[in-house]
Amino acid sequence: MTRTRAEVLAAMADAARLAAYDGDLSWRDALFEAGPDGQELSLPTDPDRVLLAALADEVTQVDAHAATLPGRLHVAWLEEVLGVPRLPVVPDRVVARVTVDPKTAPAVVPVGTVLRGGKDAVGDERRYRTLDALTAHGATVAGVRVLVPGGPASGTPGVALAAPDFPIAPPTTPEEALVAPPAGHRVRIHSGALAFSGGDLTVAITFVGAGDVSALRAGSSWHWPLPDGTLSSGTLGGGSTPGVVTVAMTGGCVDPDGGDPWIECVIDPRTPVPEGLRFTEVQVAVTARAGVAPDAAFANDGRVDLAKEFEPFLATARAGDAFFVRSDEAFAKSLATLSITVSTAVAASGGVPSWDRVIHLLAEQPALRTLPRRYVTDRSGADDTPVRVMRKASSAEVEQAGWLGRIDAGFEVGDLWADPAPATSARLEWQRLAASGWHEFAHRSTFGGVTNAVVAAGAPASLPSAVAGQPGHYVRAYLASGDFGWSDYLQQVSSFATIAVRTPDAVPAMPTAPVAAKYHQLTLSYTTTPVAATRVEAWSGWRHTVRSSGEFAPFRRAVDDLGHCGMVAVGLEVPESVTGSTVSIHLVLDSAAPCGSTAPLTAHWQWWDGTTWQALAVSDGTHGLREAGLVRFVAPQGWATGCSDVTASSGRWIRFVTDQPRRIGVVRDVITDAVVAEFVSRAADPQLDPSPATALPPGTIKGTLTPVPGVTKVTNVASVRGRGPEDDQAYATRASALVRHRGRALTPWDYEQTVTLAFPEVALLRCLPHTDTDGNRSPGTVGLVVVPDRPENPQPRPSVSLAGRIIDTLRPVMPLTASVAILCPAYVPVSVRASVRLRRGVAALQGRAAVEAALESLLHPTLAAEPRWGLSLYASTVVAVLERLTVVDVVRTFDLRAQLPSGPSPVEVVEVDPCRGLYCSTGTHEIACEEQL
């Protein structure tokens, strides 16, 4: 029993009351007087009162000393008689990043290098010693790639994630997987046949040797780049030809990088990936393309404006003239058929018939052979010179000559001397340019279009050439013979002049000059022959492959041939000198909660040699990327720059692959040139130094104790607290429990005591007998619900290493037939939406920070005074806590929201699992604070 000084004085006064001093007075009346805390000594400066005060102080100290004797004797008995040792001090550790001067890189930090920074328990500067040698190359992170399975059903595409920016958080539910970035299972086909600048084009894509391509029809979408740089989507055409997919394209197709245009098939994330698709080649053919406007047109060397009416051979055609039509889209392709459509604006007129036409008419009408020579002369004149003269006769002359009676029905005399159309004896050839010159692919007697002319020219249909200095792909309408009546017209004009001079009385009618036809709206239509795609490439997640030869499989959910479906790849920018040196990186991870799954992962580390992934020997402090740790390896020979398998053009890449990607932690950061250092105590007895119990805050390390050549800066990016000296109370509790359970774990109390006393980083622990990792009843299995001491984490879960160490500690003391399952708490995350009026003089920013801090303190599972396993949370409780804050006047509106499987929902009470349930914070609250003047 420990008494206070006031209690000792009260006892003295009670004893003095029994002794008489003078008359009716006792010694209490003489020595003591009433005070605010009971009896006090009167006249405290008198020697006798001073002596009594000193005696009261000594009694107090004696009581305090006597009160410690049982505990000290208990500790001495445990320590000296039973020989239970105290727990040793465990130094805290830091992960330090080394920055080097790029001009002198790499720099070597020897093992045992002393780092300095921060204060220890007595105010001296802390010291840390590096545990490994570090070669700092000045490395930077080129990129991070993560691939995990995704989608709501088995066999669906994965989820591809990248960083920076961090974090990289793989989806944990099918709902999250649906909104996460899809892995991008797609195949891209490059071909010049796809090029077009606008309008519509239908293309047939043949996957040779594929057979069933239904997955590329029903479970996919097709896209191609438009001229404006965006992507367009197409519709699938009809037909079910094996191995053929028909796509109706609109808007144009232009490769933004200047290469062959492409079209790609993207697998819908909600459908299975066609991993069985195989083909040996892809052929592309245009099956419908109409209404193509030419790029340009030329009449011989003169440019023709096709937007207006035009004359293809100008006003006077001559044999050898040519009308050129340029279309780099159509004529650069391997055409199967070509149609040229020309609309006539003004028909041709005027001119005279050729003598061949007259002879043809006379042969058909024998009666006309008796016509007087004044109207029709023989082909041979008196001087045997060909004469092709025919003049008009008046209607009276026709009646006087009585010709009509001798003309067969159906023949019009006007056919001979009325204004005739130009002669049609010309030969117009449509030609394309081949290596050996211009070759005909269609011909006509007049200028006009062609329909479905078979070109079959190979690629391209017409070789490039230049007309009027403009290069391009051209076809031409070539006037091989004839001139649409101009030669006949000129001869008639000559004969007219001769007759006019010789026989002025019988001058025939003046010949009419031929008038060339005018045209407008020249357009092209074409189809192409099937041609092999110039490039076929595919992406499955981050895997990028290009078809070279043989059978090609574009899609694969696994990241390698061993069937691993999860990957974390890290690219590092390091110099060439890295080869053969140790590379050290620290991966900052949110630990993947094991919840009973502490077995090692089936996983591998690999490096990229430019073609394939090779096995990499790694010292892995992350336990398979399940918690933060250091990864060290020796840079291999042939470590390539860039990695096509993760679609990266820079950096040297390593990766971690596993068949259990759900057990990978959330990647927060990648720290290069990292090393682990351990606290070095400067106390006379390091086992009595309490400094290791406090973790060093990040950024506290200031550098090395002595300069290291090439090193410009060293700072800690992460810290792990150690364990200080075990005090008497903790020792007595642990040692007494050891005496009780005698180093054996049989009852739930034994398990809880063993773990909580051996692991100070465990804040809460509950033992559930006969419970497996799923929370189901399982005889012989001891379930331990572990909550680590992480006040900065609103939902703390045990790390893989902590779970493993707990199991390793329990295995020697538990029955051989029992097993341990580490369980995570059944958290119910909670968020608050509230509107708060602050007290006068409190700023909104200050008030919001205070409210949020109070909420996090209330909701954090380890900050409560007592464990609250299975306790419900009421909205009124949260409101009461907020209104008790000194900065809050009143809570005006309030919503308590629980994160349920169906989504956030306002509730009045949050129910949790009665055995291992805990409410906690989501870390995100909506707090509106209103100030008062």
Task: Please outline what is shown here.
This is Baseplate protein J-like domain-containing protein. With 933 residues, the protein is of the alpha+beta class.
Structural overview:
There is one protein chain. The protein is an alpha+beta fold. It folds into seven domains: 5-81, no CATH class; 93-138 and 674-720; 140-180 and 557-672; 186-291 and 529-538, Lipoxygenase-1, CATH 2.60.60; 355-417, no CATH class; 744-823, GMP Synthetase, Chain A, domain 3, CATH 3.30.300; 826-930, no CATH class. The protein is 17% helix and 35% strand. It has 14 helices and 53 strands. Strands 20, 21, 22, 24, 25, 27 and 28 form a seven-stranded antiparallel β-sheet that branches. The chain has a six-stranded antiparallel β-sheet with strand order 42-7-8-41-5-43, with no helix packed on it. It has a six-stranded antiparallel β-sheet with strand order 11-10-33-39-35-36, with no helix packed on it. Helix 1 crosses helix 3 and helix 10 (728-741) packs antiparallel against helix 11.
Total strand count, please?
53
Structural class: alpha+beta
Percent in helix: 10-25%
- Number of H- or I-type helical stretches: 14
Which strand-content bin applies to the residues?
25-35%
- State the shape: elongated
Average the pLDDT over all residues and give the rounded result: 83
How far is the N terminus from the C terminus?
55 Å
Could you give a short account of the major beta sheet?
7 strands, antiparallel
- Segments where pLDDT lies below 50 for 5+ residues? 354-365, 367-424
